[in-house]
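I need you to check the entry underneath: sequence plus fold tokens. Let me know what the token row says about the fold.

>
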Amino acid sequence: MIAPAESNGTQFKSVAELLTEEVSASRLARWSSCRLQFYFHYIAQIQKPATPALHVGKTVHAVLQNWNLARWRGQNRSIDDLSDLFIQSWDQDQLGQDIDWNDKEAEQKEGAWKLLETYFQQNPIPPDEKPQAVEVRLEADLGKHGLPRIIGVIDLVRAGGTIVDFKTTKQTPDPDRVAHQTEIQLTCYGILYREATGEVESGFELHHLVKTKTPKLVVTPLAPITDQQQTRLFKQMESYVQGVEREDFVPSPGIQCLSCQFFNECRRWS
């Protein structure tokens, strides 16, 4: 177990209390993946530079957000407008970052724009369909279940209540694996949507922009969340709160360690 001194005493207590007062899907997912990684990121707050993949995803997301907001407002965005926005976002998102491009920034930038071009060409949403919500921050109080608040930001809600999440990936997603890997996130989103609207979501769509040699868009439709999924999430939240409160920050060695930014810190853990 990490010594309390490493977490600065009272400072640790305040951070831990904050982390158990409200929970996001990303916090739960990181906790489920590796509790020590969670400690390094949220408790010790060790800063790491953005990776090229993270930068690509962030820029692509910013352009899609702007495009969807324009559709929500009844405005048009030409491909030239979107290209200018992409270039601006690409540069702005690097400010204060020290990204190791390994002399491949131009290649990564070109690939990111090709992903967006592919999405605009293959987008399955009708052009005249006005979104119900874009990049909306929601929260749900689960105090009646003895649990913290859930917070989250949903990328897009289509007309009719379909929740859409955008993802960039190197591999073509398998529907069953994707459903399993995103269960925490989508269950949180379903609960947030129901709390905010009083209605049940009509389902989910995962829009994967796949970074293959010829970029492609893969849309994975998923059904509304079930009672079983909600129960599973509540159990995961209980485990999360109890673990943070008892400082249960232990590593989870596995293949995922190969891409972990905290690999060196983990090796020195005792």
Observations:
- The chain has ten helices and six strands.
- The beta strands are 22-24, 133-140, 149-157, 162-169, 203-210, 216-222.
- Residues 1-10 have pLDDT under 50 and may be disordered.
- The two ends are 7 Å apart (CA to CA).
